[in-house]
Amino acid sequence: MKVQLFIPCFVDQLYPETGMNMVKVLEKVGCTVTYNPKQTCCGQPGYNAGYGDEAKVVGKKFLNDMNGEGFIVAPSGSCVGYVRNYYEKLFENSSEHNLSNRVSGNIYEFTEFLTKILNVEHLGAKLSGKATYHDACGALRECGIKEGPRKLLQNVKGLDLLEMKESETCCGFGGTFSVKFEPISIGMAQTKVMSALETGAQYMISTDVSCMMHLQGYIDQYNYPIKTMHIADVLASGW
User: What pTM was computed for the model?
Assistant: First the structure.
């Protein structure tokens, strides 16, 4: 099966190894992976900050770069959720309307693609230790992703998956929210990290590196004994 990669900004600039690990997993399950090096941002940051016209310009480039043919897979529920749920409004009654609908209908978050399209739940990954899962807002609330990542993690050899009380609570990042409302954002990160620590987990795993970056910053500030990981990095471990 052929798939196009969409590599979001945070992954491209800060966590490139996560993108490479996603490719590693996709190729292991038989996918032929292609990547358009001309791709840039999907436009979500601008749109969320209120710059709709500018976001539309960025989104138009994204549509042309992806072309709408075949499956598009990304390691980010946030970006996938944005394209899937907001492009229709952004490109309504425009010349890009049909292309927007094709792209929106073909784009999938990484774990969603594995479990819902490929029907894969066991990848032979190995990682020793205790882990808990953070439901990123984009994945949970905009893509309806909840059980799939957990099923994949439950099949990682040596990993003991523990549910934390605040699994569905926002981590506090929210893009520009963490800048505009820093004290609230930090308080939300504290709630999430404390909940994860209560489980005794060594790893806090999620679908979005933006959440992981935010939480890891809080963890590092207080030197807490837990580490954040993107699920693609976990699923590429041990083989």
Answer: 0.95
Tokens of 131: 């882990």
In angstroms, rounded to a whole number, what is the distance separating the alpha carbons of residues 95 and 24? 36
Number of H helices and E strands in the chain, helices first, is 14, 8
Q: Which of 206, 217, 209, 226 is nearest to 182 (CA)?
A: 217
Rounded distance between C-alpha atoms, residue 61 and residue 174, angstroms: 24
77-90 vs 52-66: helix axis angle to the nearest 10? 110
Residue-wise pLDDT for 69-84, tens only, equals 799 999 999 999 999 9
CA 66 and chain centroid, separation: 18
Q: State how beta strands 126-133 and 71-74 pair.
A: unpaired
Burial class (CB in 10 A: 0-12, 13-18, 19+), 228: buried
Q: CA 77 to CA 206: how far, in whole Å? A: 10
CA end-to-end distance (rounded Å), the chain:
22
* Bridge partners, 227 (sequence order): 203
Q: How far apart are CA 25 and CA 29, in angstroms?
A: 7
Pairing mode, strands 126-133 and 107-109: unpaired
